[in-house]
Amino acid sequence: MNLTMIGSGYVGLVSGACFAEFGANVTCVDKDESKINALLNGKIPIYEPGLDDLVERNVKAGRLSFSLELEKAVKNSDLIFIAVGTPTRRGDGHADLKYVYAAAEEIASYLDGYTVIVDKSTVPVGTAREVARVIAKTNPDADFDVASNPEFLREGSAIGDFMRPDRVVLGIESDRAETLLRELYRPLNLISAPIHVTNLESAELIKYASNAFLATKISFINEISQLCEKVGADVHSVAKGMGMDKRIGNKFLHAGPGYGGSCFPKDTLALIRIAQEHGSSCRIVESVVEVNAAQKAAMVSKIRSAMGDSVSGKKIGVLGLAFKPETDDMRDAPALSILPALLDKGAEVKAHDPESMEEAKKILPETLQYCDNLDEVVTDADAVVLMTEWNQYRGLDLEDVISKMKGNVFIDLRNVYENETMQKYGFEYFCVGR
């Protein structure tokens, strides 16, 4: 089976490499010449554990290739996946679909024989039908179907999510399209992964509803963490007690500085706009967005309070910048709102992250200092802030850390450590909801 993946970003590259691992012949096409050249030279433009080995193996096997030329790839394809970006549109919160529709229009002129065009990008309800309209208008003789196949990849564990999914969602309106897509995903039969076939609109909404629900769990436990601090409860214990209920589950009940990343912030906003466009309401999701913004602001207040209500002239070492571990993604990371606020208040901030510092340099203030190792971060610091729970920050040599610091304040925004342990080493310890 021959596939074209339009877009070689996170979704396109991971999905393309995984389909190649399934045995398909995959061509990843992108308009970014520097990205394609990097891939052709064996350089992976994003950090995702295991992706470099997966790409290298399938390139060597001749099943995965990269190109700037769309025409040749499209003409040889059985299925074409649109995996371009759908960022939040400035000003109104809608998903910006210009790249999706541009791809559809370009595809249309090159179609040769029956082809299934698949929306892999996260797109609002109605997008697949509009893609079909654009293609039919551009090439009235085209023999094609449009399907929706949303991705559910978590950054940092994307390959495992693709290879061992909870479910595969297919929005389909023809038997021919269903036959091709089921054949593509046939390797998952070995692990009995469920394939959920539905209509286009339902498939598109499943993605948004899923992400909004997970974001709701995060904002809920973050609000409960604020209450825990007021009444003397322990949010860890509360979350554990909640999670034991099988109707609730223990996933996404970890209090912290708020959610970020490429999906939750833009997908919650897009779902709100979709509802408004159709005369419906999403009041719960609207509250989720508000609570998340408030949680990030509360972290700034927590840091200032821990340092005597002023950070002016204080040296703060920050551990972690990415929105979560095992990724270099800085999109909507809590660090983007917390660190500028500290710098604006006169703090001297030094930071370390195993993977995301180059990305951070593009978007954080120039006054932020970057450190190549942990010693640089903690030396002479009045306080240390644990922002992202990378594994290397989970097992710090606490005796060594406090010996290098000038102060003794440790602010743990991910609740990695226990108060008794930190006090034993002489830290003044602050965390979230405990």
Describe the structure.
This protein is α/β, with parallel strands linked by helices and 434 residues long. The chain folds into three domains: 2-198, 3-Layer(aba) Sandwich (Rossmann fold); 208-290, N-(1-d-carboxylethyl)-l-norvaline Dehydrogenase, domain 2 (Orthogonal Bundle); 295-430, Rossmann fold. It is built from 18 helices and 14 strands. The chain has helices at residues 10-22, 33-40, 51-60, 70-75, 98-108, 127-138, 158-163, 175-184, 200-231, 235-243, 264-277, 283-306, 335-344, 357-363, 374-378, 391-394, 398-404, 419-424, and strands at residues 2-6, 25-29, 64-67, 79-82, 115-119, 144-148, 168-171, 195-198, 315-319, 348-352, 369-370, 383-386, 409-412, 428-430. The strands form three sheets. A six-stranded parallel beta sheet has the order 3-2-1-4-5-6, with helices on both faces. A six-stranded parallel beta sheet has the order 11-10-9-12-13-14. It has a two-stranded parallel ribbon with strand order 7-8. Helix 1 (10-22) packs across helix 3 and helix 9 (200-231) runs parallel beside helix 12. It starts with a strand and ends with a strand.
- Which architecture of the largest domain does the CATH hierarchy give at level 2? 3-Layer(aba) Sandwich
- Supply the CATH superfamily name of the largest domain: NAD(P)-binding Rossmann-like Domain
CATH level 1 name of the largest domain: Alpha Beta
The separation of the N and C termini measures 54 Å
Query: Structural class from helices and strands?
Result: alpha/beta
Beta-strand percentage?
5-15%
Largest sheet: 6 strands, parallel
How many individual helices? 18
The overall strand count is 14
Average pLDDT reading: 95
Gyration radius, rounded: 23 Å
Helix content: 40-55%
| Principal-axis shape | globular
Low-confidence stretches: none
Please indicate the count of domains: 3
Q: Remind me, CATH topology of the largest domain?
A: Rossmann fold
Strand order of the largest sheet: 3-2-1-4-5-6
